[in-house]
Amino acid sequence: MSDPTLHLAVALDGLGWHPAAWRLSCAEPTAPLHAHWWSGLAAEAERGTLDLLTIEDSLALQSSRPDGPDGRTDQLRGRLDAVQIAARIAPSTRHIGLVPTTSVTHTEPFHLSTAVATLDHVSGGRAGWRPRVSGTSAEARHFGRRDIPGFDPHRLDEPATVRLVDELFAEATDAVEVVRWLWDSWQDDAVIRDVATGRFIDRDRLHYIDFTGRWFSVKGPSIVPRPPQGQPPVAVLAHAATAYAFAAGQADIVFVTPADAGQAAEIVTEVRAAEVAAGRTGPPLRILADLGVVLDETPTLARRRRDRLDDLDDTEHASDAAIFTGTPALLADLVADWHRAGVDGFRLRPAVLPDDLTTIVRALVPALRDRGLFRHRYPGGTLRDLLGLPEPVNRYAAPSPA
Amino acid sequence: MPKQIILAAHFPGVNNTTVWSDPASGSQIDFASFVHLARTAERGKFDFLFLAEGLRLREQRGQIHDLDVVGRPDTLTVLAALAGVTTHLGLAGTLNTTFREPYELARQLASLDHLSGGRAAWNVVTSSDAFTGENFRRGGYLDRSLRYQRAAEFVQTARELWESWAPDAVVADRAAGRYLDPADAGAFAHHGDQFDIAGHFTVPRSPQVHPVILQAGDSPEGREFAASSADAIFSRHGTLEDGQQFYRDVKSRLARYGREPDHLKIIPGVTFVLGDTAAEAQERAHHIRRQQVSPQTAILLLEQVWNRDLSGYDPDGPLPAEDPRPDDDSIIKGRTRLTDDPIVTARRWRALAEAKKLGIRDLIIEVTGRQSFIGTPQHVAESMDHFVQTDAADGFILVPHLTPGGLDEFVDRVVPLLQDRGVFRTEYTGTTLREHLGLPAARPLPVVAA
Ligand SMILES: Cc1cc2nc3c(=O)[nH]c(=O)nc-3n(C[C@H](O)[C@H](O)[C@H](O)COP(=O)(O)O)c2cc1C
């Protein structure tokens, strides 16, 4: 058997990524408010031996507008906290990586670090984390602690916008830095339970991180012992240079959004260059292409499903990532094609849940297995193991003098 | 029908009540330990499981405290995971209001309430020292006198967010293509001294609407805050007379807020030791006390009163001749000091040590943290029932000394006796924690009387 290296992830959000998904889904429209919805999707993804699932989140209500609510009543609105969902489904899953999204703009790096570390503990080493920035004034008003002026996403080259985005990513860089140092702040062997000296821990194996930055200072150590993976994988969704640089410096996985195989190759080159520029020493980023999927038995049926969804929403759905409409076999061709162009795998965004996830698991995955591209069973181990990431060295335990 | 007893299980904490040196002591961090305690509590038809929180590791003499259990999981995350392995048990988490923001915490708690089918509870604590603040964006920004002002406005703001989605806001009518009604579901605006925020909340109304609110502060401000805002108090008043006095005090504060005495439950944290005979229970209790107070721990506990470095003293030797140092710069950080006037305490302890010929360790064993209920299962069940029927409490938060098996014996031997007495449920009759506790449905925060 060949050595399949392709990585497959599924991105979960509401009843699917198409704004009209709730109209056609076979599930109850309020299903995403219930635990069994999420454990059902996770079980299905695990049946397909997927590497990981991501859970979307935002500190604002969903909206079709870039800044603030849109007042629409015809689309699904409302969602639960992604870390809470991930933790809730951890006990009912055994192999799949659980990667919630959180904002790092208005939140505390200390709480984020302990939350993800705990997700790693309760899942037996299957936690990941997707930090994102919150750039809207709507989100800022929910916290009332700082002003974010808001910007026009179609005019990202405005100097004020460039400055804002740079600042948000600089802060995000500090946040991930702090989260990671806190994960290292307990050495694995800190708990000694030494009855003779009465000591539960060896305090020399706990470390103050003493981080001081422009946005926050954090003393440490963490209140949570080191997570089983040491460093749960960090994933970044990136569309352009600033985010590639952020990913190259801070992440283990990058989700990118090429339109075709040619662009996929270009983006891979750009990401690899960003890694060099960042002086990256760890394992290379796992580059996963984000792709929306509308699947059916024939190309015509798939096209019809997509048209029907677009009709229900009164617009032709477009998003930041390309959308594939067709059969699982054709999608397997595309996957093989882009994989050859250099991406390590895909994060598929089902247009409708659970429908398109079911098709991914029941039809796409077997097609990829037949081609020797994808695993038949889980090897057992942590999310880092699934992704082929080596065991991370605790920077405090490293022999070099600090 | 006699008063029904509320029972909750406290996951063993990071102080010397928890015995880690015993061969039966398991991991304080492995999820399996939490699953064991939660399932035991649910098997015993308990009302809820309780988790404490500390946002910075304790220090003593300027160093991380290493004699007790150190390190625990993030409260909210482990509760969400426990929702997946239990079906009825309430899930209560201690969450500080000083180093969080209402929008984020309200959505996390509302999410937990959805994901657990209405079993979420929040123990509101305010501890606001600059020491803990060093782990957070704003540092130690809040004056001690303002901590309950912020807590009260925090809870009020959270309630506004929890109610921002009308009960019928999600219509989800596929045929009509209408998901929401009205369009501004989740809209809120709160303009106050502590929080000035507006926008849209992301979480539709949760099963309990308001997760159960617990409070654990003991100052007059803390009691007033509980009377105005809490559904239950986690108290320290675990002896009969002290409990009755506290109970009267707090319940008498309720009328001012238009609340019934029943609507605020008093639940002290208590410990227990069982034995087949009274003598055996006493023996076990003493053995556990010696495990809880190691020679090193004895010196450290003494330092908390003396507020001096006493590391040179012999744990089996006499108490220090010098007096405690005044309170200004506490030797212990990350935890409230428990003693009243250190000079008075020191005098009392010296007298006792001389009278009973006790060294430091034996004295500390004698004067700190005696177990609340010691005896045969029959005796413990009777005492607990008496406590509740005579209004010293509405129930108990049981703090086992062992992780994770410390509750097993209580559930196996005492719970059936309480059930036989007709003072504890034999089956869950409700699904939400509010129903278990006999609390009214969620209510808006009453207008605070001047
Ligand atoms: C029984 C009990 C348990 C407590 N548990 C915690 C805890 O887990 N975490 C915490 O930060 N504070 C805890 N506290 C501290 C209080 O909630 C409160 O913030 C502190 O005592 C200061 O308020 P006060 O002056 O009103 O007592 C606890 C207090 C009591 C009485």
Automatic annotation (TrEMBL), chain A:
Luciferase-like domain: residues covered: 41-306
GO molecular function, one term: monooxygenase activity
Cross-referenced Pfam families: Bac_luciferase
Listed SUPFAM superfamilies: Bacterial luciferase-like
UniProt cross-references to Gene3D superfamilies, sorted A to Z: Luciferase-like domain
Keywords: Flavoprotein, FMN, Monooxygenase, Oxidoreductase
Top-level division of the source organism's lineage: Bacteria
The keyword Flavoprotein is annotated on this UniProt entry: yes
Family: Belongs to the NtaA/SnaA/DszA monooxygenase family.
Name of the protein in its database record: FMNH2-dependent monooxygenase
Species name: Micromonospora endophytica
UniProtKB/TrEMBL annotation, chain B:
Entry keyword set: Flavoprotein, FMN, Monooxygenase, Oxidoreductase
Single GO molecular function: oxidoreductase activity, acting on paired donors, with incorporation or reduction of molecular oxygen
InterPro entries in the cross-refs: Diverse_substr_monoxygenases, Luciferase-like_dom, Luciferase-like_sf, NTA_MOA
Skewed-composition ranges (Basic and acidic residues): 322-331
Pfam families the UniProt entry points to: Bac_luciferase (PF00296)
Top-level division of the source organism's lineage: Bacteria
Positions of the UniProt region annotated as Disordered: 312-331
Family the entry assigns: Belongs to the NtaA/SnaA/DszA monooxygenase family.
Matches recorded under PANTHER family: ALKANESULFONATE MONOOXYGENASE-RELATED, C2H2 FINGER DOMAIN TRANSCRIPTION FACTOR (EUROFUNG)-RELATED
Name under which the protein is recorded: F420-dependent methylene-tetrahydromethanopterin reductase
